[in-house]
Write a structure and sequence with these properties.
Number of domains: 2
CATH class of the largest domain: Alpha Beta
Shape: elongated
Distance between the termini: 67 Å
Largest sheet: 8 strands, parallel
Number of helices: 23
Helix content: 40-55%
Strand order of the largest sheet: 1-10-7-6-5-4-3-2
Number of strands: 18
CATH topology of the largest domain: TIM Barrel
CATH architecture of the largest domain: Alpha-Beta Barrel
Length: 620
């Protein structure tokens, strides 16, 4: 006989609740506390949260037991309280439901153990099963209507949880929810298709997606599961966007109104149970309830560039990219303001972070981090990128010279960068060591920039190394190439650009540009030979500081040509030369803006105050 919950689920989509931890924290309970322990020490708080979700329209509420297994509780000295906390959580939820006089189902919430299973960790499969049974049995005893295994990223651990659940109860409805990253895989690398393959024949009633990412990415993952698991019940409970850490607090960007549209989109994609996860509140659930109850409201038609796949930009025809902020900006035709910074000469990064903060406040969207500029010894740029992204929540572009690296180090450094969530790679040859601090250092290299672009696009991004051997999972690098819009040999530069595009470049950063007419002419000539130039271009802007700086760039830096009238203006500016440089740079941006997709600003002499003045013209 089909369980009542499943009968209801088959007759109409049901609405779950939202975040428990977010609501507990909002009531002044610090994250350091054991939230599950509140079932005994402060049940009034938990009951109030349950009531708020029922009042908002939830058909299903989850017990406050997500982390109530012996491994997580041991971190708080509460491993001996597993049965008490789970039993109390279930009975508390039951009392709230009965007092509401509404038909609301109670899901016993069971999360991962918090420690990896063997062979990655030291927990054996039998230990994992015992820990899950120890948690699930009191939930069933306490009167839950179904079991919710949620936020799992290790399929082996989830399979042990399912096994344990079925050892405790053979017929209680069982939901298994998986969490995916923005790259469209679990933390251990499984795609939705692989997850579907592993779970397809297991004794579970609903398969779903929850946590980690916002509604757009969860919708993509849900669609992938639906395609791989036709005619299976599905669920979706996204976060309220990607979590951001601001002023010591964890913030979520997706507003409640946004969730109304996605409730309908999830149902259209095949979900029978929808709800929210981290960052969602009763207001989010209220908007989902209103959308589900409105028979005249149709699911929205989302643009194809939302979700995890489908970013088709410049570069090779038909190329698809995994998402990151820079890819999103360029896909949506937003004007990108990228600023170059050098890593510190030492291991303290305060000055670099202060400069990045100044640029962020002025309107910069991306920070470029150079690699040993002018062959001077500096901190590793991917460490600098990681610090900026961690402290400022601001995306970076990693400059990656091929010079001085053999093929082993190239691939190892790239995988290290990817593991630190650095996705944007600017491929360059790099400055020769003869001009730097260590002129006798090795200057050899195994690949040129166009070959490295091809390795990234057709190798690592396809899950293969240089030798064609598989790596654990594909990377999703977004790849930039160098370009000179005013080169001494236009025909040669056009051929090199074409080769980089065919290798798979996704965007270009240019040498400093001072002649707008010449830059336009270069693009016109390229398009006369190869057709429309779809590669997004970020035009190089290097503000001039004084006459000496101007003459040095023009006469001694290869690839930079500054018109005579500009050099004459800088000679005549005297003490006002720095401000004239700002004005000229602002004028260049406004003239270049109609035919480029952004700027690549290189502050002279680390004068971030002047650089801020330059980009503020875009706010006007």
């Amino acid at each position: 006989m089909t369980h009542l919950f499943l009968q209801k689920l088959d007759s109409r989509p049901l609405l779950g609740d939202g975040a428990m931890g977010t609501m507990i924290y909002a009531k002044g309970i610090p994250f350091e506390r054991c939230f599950d322990e509140l079932n005994l020490s402060n049940p009034a708080i938990i009951a109030e949260i349950h009531r708020s979700y029922i009042d908002a329209g939830s058909n299903v509420i989850e017990t406050n037991t997500f982390g109530a297994n012996r491994f997580k509780l041991a971190e708080h000295g509460l491993a001996h309280k597993v049965a008490d906390l789970n039993l109390a959580g279930a009975r508390l939820a039951r009392r709230v439901v009965e007092a509401s006089f509404k038909e609301v189902f109670i899901a016993g919430s069971v999360g991962p153990l918090g420690k990896p299973l063997a062979p990655l960790g030291r927990i054996r499969a039998t230990e994992a099963q015992e820990a899950f049974r120890q948690q699930i049995a009191p939930l069933v005893e306490g009167g839950v209507d179904l079991l919710m295994l949620e936020t799992f990223s290790d399929m082996l651990e989830l399979i042990e949880a399912i096994t344990a659940a079925r050892q405790v109860t053979a017929d209680m409805p069982l939901i298994a929810q998986i969490t995916f990253t923005e790259e469209g895989r679990t933390l251990l690398g499984q795609t939705p298709q692989k997850v579907a393959e592993l779970l397809a024949n297991l004794p579970i009633d609903v398969i779903g997606v929850n946590c980690s990412v916002g509604p757009a990415d969860v919708l993509y993952h849900l669609q992938a599961l639906a395609a791989a698991l036709p005619n299976r019940r599905l669920s979706a409970q996204p976060n309220a966007g990607w979590p951001q850490h601001i002023g010591g607090r964890t913030m979520y960007s997706a507003p409640p109104e946004y969730f109304g549209d996605y409730a309908l989109a999830f149902v259209q994609a095949g979900a029978r149970l929808v709800g929210g996860c981290c960052g969602t509140t009763p207001k989010h659930i209220m908007h989902m309830r209103a959308a589900l109850d409105d028979p005249t409201r149709l699911p929205p038609s989302f643009p194809p560039d939302l979700g995890v796949k489908g970013y088709q930009l410049g570069g090779k025809e038909g190329g698809q990219l995994e998402p990151n902020q820079m890819a999103r900006y360029l896909a949506n035709r937003q004007f990108v303001v990228s600023v170059e910074m050098s890593p510190p000469k030492g291991f303290t990064a305060e000055k670099m972070l202060a400069g990045a903060t100044t640029m962020q406040a002025a309107g910069a969207t991306i920070i470029n981090v150079a690699d040993s500029p002018r062959s001077r010894m500096r901190m590793s740029p991917w460490a600098a990128c990681h610090l900026i992204q961690t402290h400022l929540q601001m995306e970076t572009v990693l400059h990656f010279p091929t010079r001085g690296r053999n093929i082993l180090r190239v691939q190892g450094d790239l995988l290290a960068a990817h593991s630190l969530n650095i996705r944007n790679i600017f491929v360059v040859m790099g400055d020769p060591t003869t001009i730097g601090d260590y002129p006798h250092a090795s200057d050899s290299y195994d690949v040129v920039p166009s070959a490295l672009i091809k390795l990234l696009k057709q190798g690592l991004n396809q899950g293969k190394d240089y030798g064609g051997e598989p790596i654990s999972q594909p990377t999703d690098f977004f790849i930039g190439c160098a370009l000179n819009l005013t080169p001494p040999d236009v025909a040669h530069e056009i051929k090199v650009l074409r080769r980089k595009i065919e290798s798979g470049a996704d965007f270009a950063l240019t040498q400093p540009t001072y002649n707008v007419a010449a830059a336009q002419s270069f693009i016109t000539q390229y398009e006369s030979e190869y057709g429309l130039l779809t590669l997004p271009i970020l035009a190089g802007i290097l503000p001039l500081y004084n006459s000496r700086h101007t003459e040095f760039l023009h006469n001694e830096v290869p690839g930079i040509n500054i018109p005579e009238d500009v050099r004459q203006q800088m000679r005549e500016a005297g003490a006002e030369s720095a401000q004239l440089g700002v004005k000229l740079a602002r004028d260049l941006i406004l003239q270049l803006r109609p035919f480029v997709q952004g700027i690549y600003l290189m502050p002279a002499f680390n004068r971030y105050d002047l650089a801020a003045e330059v980009i503020e013209v875009l706010k006007q």
